[in-house]
Amino acid sequence: MHNPTPLDRLRETLAALEAEFDAELDERRERLKYRIEQGRVRFDREVLARHRATKVRLGEFLAATRPMVVLTAPVIYSLILPFALMDLFVSLYQAICFPVYGIAKVCRRDHIVIDRHHLAYLNGLQKLNCLYCSYCNGLIGYVREIAGRTEQYWCPIKHARRVAGAHDQYRDFTDYGDAEAFRTESQPLRDRLRG
């Protein structure tokens, strides 16, 4: 066993912070009085009644919306076609290539979570907007995970410059310019991708 490096200690700290974050989210769920039963969100009856009472009706919502915001809606929603095509092509890529490479497949439903339509305080348009954002942002996470696993398989080398918002696999990549580490660590990094 080797002595932990500063990076190893930082990873441990990060894992502890993530566990603390998850515990705080669980506590908030309890305070907001909802639970997940058989994949469905369930609110306590009195909470659901309060939610319904705070819903802004569609007419009021639209009346309070600036006209320029309404005019941009077609631009936002026009992206659904490229997003759906990306979903199709990335899913096909993963289905065809990952088994060949020996990479465990990414579970799409872990990334694309559609549950905001259960919120009684949203009107129909707000629910549609939430559905769209949930799909698009979830899809980006799904694509990012597939791309990250692909990069770990083919080219697990960090960049010379700092990368903003790097995927989870990136922190384990070999350092830029470390030829020996690339030679010795590439195969173990590939092996970690197996399911």
Structure, described:
The chain has helices spanning 6-31, 45-54, 58-63, 67-77, 80-101, 124-154, 179-191, and strands at residues 34-37, 40-43. It has a domain at 73-191. Helices cover 61% and strands 4% of the residues. It has 195 residues and is mainly alpha-helical. It contains seven helices and two strands.
Write a concise synopsis of the structure shown.
With 195 residues, this protein is mainly α. It has helices at 6-31, 45-54, 58-63, 67-77, 80-101, 124-154, 179-191; strands at residues 34-37, 40-43. Strand 1 (34-37) and strand 2 (40-43) form a beta hairpin.
Question: What are its keywords?
Answer:
195 residues; mainly alpha; 61% helix; two-stranded antiparallel sheet; 7 helices; globular
**Poorly predicted residue ranges:** none
- Largest sheet entry: 2 strands, antiparallel
Residues in β-strands, percent: under 5%
Q: Topology as H/E string? A: HEEHHHHHH
Round the mean pLDDT to the nearest integer and report it: 92
Strand order of the largest sheet: 1-2
Alpha plus pi helix count: 7
- DSSP E strands, number: 2
